[in-house]
Amino acid sequence: MTTVPPITALVAAGQRPEGDPLAIASGVADKALIELEGRPMLAHVLETLLGFPGIGAIRVLTQTPERLRAHPAVAALAANPRIRFVTGGDSVSEAVAAAMAPGDYPFLLTTADHPLLDAAMLEHFTASARAANADVAAAVVSRAVFTPRFPAIRRTWLRFAGGAYSGANLFWFGSPAALAVLARWRSVEQQRKRARAVVGAFGPLILLGVVTRLLSLDRALAMAGRRLGLNAVAIELPQAEACIDVDRPADRTVASAILAERARENQVHH
Asked: Are the C-beta atoms of 61 and 10 separated by less than 8 Å?
């Protein structure tokens, strides 16, 4: 019987040097501490990860561990020995690479501003990544799935042949080959909101294919993976809310409403 190795979860909970506008507006020092339904976003994420059976260790990547641990809800969860706070690196990619370098694969990366993350998303994503034998996988949501449910929420869309997609803040690193992607990520990290710059970093033919919409998402990732000598796949999630990260007041309003609805459903079922 083959033993499935546990997944080490990495939670990016860093802070911009200039501060985050939504955090400042919310009266907290760190974006991860913005409260939704009475709990900081980081606590929502950690609780979901702790409850998912495929995950072993959890590493919170942050420059400010003391501030995060000072919040009672985070402190209560951080008492769990599976959770450790990790500092280091001048960027997300450097922090992730440092956390992965001495460890056992696979790794799962998500973010502290992903409070709507739930077990269904994790199950679909991790099972699909394993089935594809992916060195690297990225979760996405199609605009066809997202827009009918959330027509007023703005997202950054990458357009391909066959549809447009937005990232869902879930990444899979299945083998040491993934470090090549992190090195390339570092080169475009400051341009992450400029979709064409990010795609173009993986090759001019890929950029051309995306601009002209001649490449599908799967084809573009397969080509990018071959350039880096690895198997890269996109995994579409069926949950529209999977690509709502909390960057704007409108995102916060929608995320709060969804969490409140989930809480009501849990009360009904229990």
From this structure: yes
Amino acid at 34: I
User: What values do phi and psi take at 55, rounded to 5?
Assistant: -100, 135
Beta strands (DSSP E) in the chain are 7-12, 35-36, 39-40, 55-61, 83-86, 107-111, 136-142, 158-160, 163-173, 232-236
Q: Which residue has the tokens 């606590």?
A: 43
The model's pLDDT over 17-68, given as tens digits with 9 standing for 90+, comes to: 677 889 988 999 899 999 999 999 999 999 999 999 999 999 999 989 999 9
CA 247 to chain centre: 13
CATH number (3.40.920.10, 3.90.550.10, 3.40.50.2000, 3.40.50.300) of 7-269 reads: 3.90.550.10
pLDDT one-digit tens code per residue, 133-149 = 999 888 889 999 999 99
Q: What sign has the CA pseudo-torsion 234, 193, 111, 38?
A: negative
pLDDT at 209 over 80: no
